[in-house]
Design a protein that fits this description.
Blueprint (H helix, E strand, L loop, with lengths): L7 E9 L2 E8 L8 H8 L9 E6 L6 E7 L4 E2 L3 H15 L3 E6 L2 E9 L2 E5 L28 E4 L3 E6 L8 H9 L9 E9 L2 E8 L3 E3 L3 H14 L5 E6 L2 E8 L2 E7 L1 E9 L1
Parallel strand pairs: 2-3, 4-6, 10-11, 12-14
Antiparallel strand pairs: 1-2, 1-17, 3-4, 4-5, 6-7, 7-8, 8-16, 9-10, 11-12, 12-13, 14-15, 15-16
Length: about 270
């Protein structure tokens, strides 16, 4: 446990397409991050502010283990953009062009994609209702919800709506409503997307436990899988998010995500 009244905790601030993170490096040990502490740091007025918090730990199975917290202090099993940011940090540190990270999602392969971009294999999508999970058996390609969304698991649950114009959606209202829909017992990330060209999508996202975010890696993977399953795109998709462009490839070995990362600054949290 951390004594929040008398602690100095070095951290890194990173982002992927504006999806921002506070990262603690605990490979050499140190106190655990509690949900309460994560929630305090997430406050954008009284803390540092982030969409997700990530903790890097030493691992015997991989180059490092990473755990994630949402801005509300809840745990998250997956965070694609944070995974890319941490992979880039470890590759820069080691001089290598690839690393493997252990997450609750499993062992994720990460690599330098050239031109300052980083690629990560987020694993195979989860398509079965019981594993996403949903509250009861339904067709995950056509949920019994107004708007005919698609459910996908990427280590965390996702609900994707294909609409005529994602820009016109009141994301603050619709996202908050759907996050807590009873069909999703663990809540859900929510996306609204529409095709903008061959194998191109415009997407906006509401993240479970964080709200509206400029980008989301796992959401981008889920939308690409949902679009391919619906026949709206092929397996390789370019997605335009509020924070920029990300490329998704649904391959035989998993869903690969490629995009930019940024290490913004280093700081110290004084509890």
């Amino acid at each position: 446990m951390i004594d929040d009244t008398n602690s100095r905790l070095p951290f890194m601030k990173m982002h992927g397409l504006g999806n921002d993170f506070v990262v603690f490096d605990r490979r050499s040990g140190g106190p655990d991050v509690t949900p309460a502490l994560a929630k305090s740091i997430a406050d954008r007025h009284r803390g540092v502010g982030f969409d997700q918090l990530a903790v890097i730990r030493a691992s015997d199975e991989s180059d490092a283990e990473v755990i994630f917290f949402n801005a509300d202090g809840s745990a998250s099993a997956a965070c694609g953009n944070a995974t890319r940011c941490i992979a880039r940090h470890l590759m820069n540190e080691s001089g290598r062009d690839s690393v493997v990270l252990k997450t609750q999602r499993g062992l994720l392969s990460c690599e330098d994609a050239g031109n300052g971009l980083t690629r990560v294999n987020m694993g195979a999508p989860i398509l079965g209702w019981q594993d996403i999970p949903l509250s009861y058996e339904v067709d995950t390609l056509h949920l019994p919800i107004e708007g005919d969304p698609v459910a996908t698991g990427m280590g965390n649950p996702h609900c994707t709506f294909f609409v005529e114009d994602a820009e016109s959606i009141d994301l603050a209202v619709r996202g908050a409503q759907m996050e807590h829909h009873p069909l999703f017992p663990e809540r859900t990330n929510v996306q609204f997307a529409h095709p903008t060209g061959p194998d191109c999508l415009r997407m906006r996202v509401w993240e479970r436990g964080a709200g509206i975010t400029l980008a989301s890696g796992s959401s981008s993977c889920a939308v690409a899988v949902a679009a391919c399953r619906r026949g709206l795109t092929g397996p390789n998709v370019t997605i335009e998010l509020d924070g920029g462009i990300i490329a998704i490839e649904w391959r035989d070995d998993g869903v690969w995500m490629t995009g930019p990362t940024a290490h913004v600054f280093d700081g110290v949290w004084i509890g």
